[in-house]
Amino acid sequence: MKKQDPRFKIAHREALIGVALAVVHFIWWFGFAYGLGSRPVEEYTYIFGLPDWFFYSCVVGFILICITVILLAKFVLKDVSFEEEDMK
Amino acid sequence: MNMAVVLPMIIFLLIIFFIGYYASKKISSSNSFLQEYFLGGRELGGFVLAMTMVATYGSASSFLGGPGTAYTMGFGWILLAMTQVVTGYFVLLILGKKFAILARRYNAVTLIDFLKMRYKSPIVVLLSAASMIIFLFSSMTAQWVGGGRLIESLTGLNYHTALFIFAISVLVYVTIGGFRAVALTDAVQGGVMVIGTLVLLIGVIIAGGGIDNIVQDLVNENPRLVSPYGFDGNLSMAYVSSFWILVGVGVVGLPQMAVRAMSYKNSRSMHRALVIGTIVTGFIMLNMHLIGVFARPVLPGIEIGDKVIPLIALEVLPAWLAGIVLAAPMAAIMSTVDSLLLLVSSSIVKDVYINYIKPDASEKTIKRMSFGITAILGVIVFLLALNPPDLLIFLNLFAFGGLEAAFIWPVVLGLYWSYGNKYGAIASMVTGIATYVAIHFYNQSNGNLFGVHTVTLPIVLSLVSFVLFSLLIKREQYDFEK
């Protein structure tokens, strides 16, 4: 077997980042939604008018994901060429 | 007919036509017709790529059905809808670079081209072409019915006329402009969706007297509306979480998403699309479903879910602005339909005709075939949508989850697991579709198995059978460098 294309190593690493991000995202989403949301409704507090569990899980969670993907795209993901070497 | 509502829609349609015409100019100047027509010459930049992914994915259900359900269920349904944010980054990070590199190496134009090169099996090709054509065809027809109904309810035209207008609009630009027209119009349609949802959300909040007021009204009506468990407390943790598979990570398996992962120009456009796609998906989903929930105290007593958005727009906005906002669901439907149409057409032309019937077809024949098949398919879908047969409505139930269950592992493991082989792929596709249909019927009569959405088990089972069959029959390592 020939040596592995070095671009694949980058691709594999970034796919794993995708899985890891989805797992963390899920834990955040689930934790706040059901952690805070399972209390009786009378105990909810409201942030900008929205129930607290929803605000943290869906609004803050979404904003954090946006910041994460911006940072990923800027500092972590690597530029690679998609063309075959001999065609460069 | 309310001219102030209709006029913005007409202008919107004209812009779409113009883009189709512009894209068709590009086609005649391109040297590889197939790559240009079905993939836009692999030249998509980050913004257009992100928008076409969001717009293709966001269909009638995100703009009409979803907010309609949120109206009934309350905040729990927004929680469920927000699981879709994950698609924005997940699809591109998983398929991302490896798929783009291999697709170019194999010179693949369709998802099936990729599967054909990876597994080297005619059975895999025929199975996947058949499931794609059947499932996508039925979901396309369902979307056309939605488009026709929407025009009907906005303009007061009868259903047949409305459907005809819708069909002509879509057919013209897809047929002449191909993938580039689809992607560019998707970008415009995506923009319309973003602005439309924001305007409508602000309108609803003002009409309801501020968020505090609206939420207080909801609590007074039924406190469960602001809990994550739905208005009747029946929206379970397991069920909502299983949507992470159906509309989140499972979307990797949808052919209409996978084909977009071969169309970008370079890794920089991919990175940009990742950022824009995530932000736009989340923004649209959050806004639309908040609108659905907030509409409840503002306009109580709406019985049919699909009518919530049109009615609330007409209620809280001036007519001309409502027209612009209501172009958004229209855009969502069109942008989903256009890509499905092109995908089915590419599957017939490339995967069936060129692969098996006439491998040596000339460029000119291919060109005529592509235009012809796209147009004919459109006409067939139109005729079916006039009076949708029961079988089609039935098949549409399986379209989304069934395709995911069929394709996710052959695609993902085909990329990342060198021991995956054709026996695994065939077993996985058959298992995925068969168990999906079986569990669908089980859930219909007995309630959800394990309390999760139908798609969950078939995805697990098709993974198991992919791994088992790959290892048991002719176990061999695949060399990606060949």
From TrEMBL, chain A:
Protein species of origin: Paenisporosarcina quisquiliarum
Protein name in the entry: YhdT family protein
Transmembrane domains' residue ranges: 15-34, 54-77
Top-rank taxon, per record: Bacteria
Alphabetic keyword roster: Membrane, Transmembrane, Transmembrane helix
InterPro entries: DUF997
Automatic annotation (TrEMBL), chain B:
Domain of life: Bacteria
Protein name: Sodium/pantothenate symporter
PANTHER family: SODIUM/PROLINE SYMPORTER-RELATED (PTHR48086), SODIUM_PANTOTHENATE SYMPORTER (PTHR48086:SF4)
Gene3D superfamilies, A to Z: Sodium/glucose cotransporter
Coiled-coil residue spans: none
NCBIfam families: panF, sss
UniProt record, GO biological process: sodium ion export across plasma membrane
GO cellular component: plasma membrane
Pfam short name (any one): SSF
UniProt keywords, alphabetically: Cell membrane, Membrane, Transmembrane, Transmembrane helix, Transport
UniProt GO molecular function: pantothenate transmembrane transporter activity; sodium ion transmembrane transporter activity
Main localization (coarse): membrane
Subcellular location: Membrane
Membrane topology: Multi-pass membrane protein
InterPro entries assigned to the protein according to its UniProt record, in alphabetical order: Na/Glc_symporter_sf, Na/pantothenate_symporter, Na/solute_symporter, Na/solute_symporter_CS, Sodium:Solute_Symporter
Family matches, as CDD domains: SLC5sbd_PanF (cd10327)
Ranges annotated as spanning the membrane: 6-23, 44-64, 70-95, 123-145, 157-179, 191-215, 235-254, 274-299, 319-344, 365-386, 392-416, 423-443, 449-473
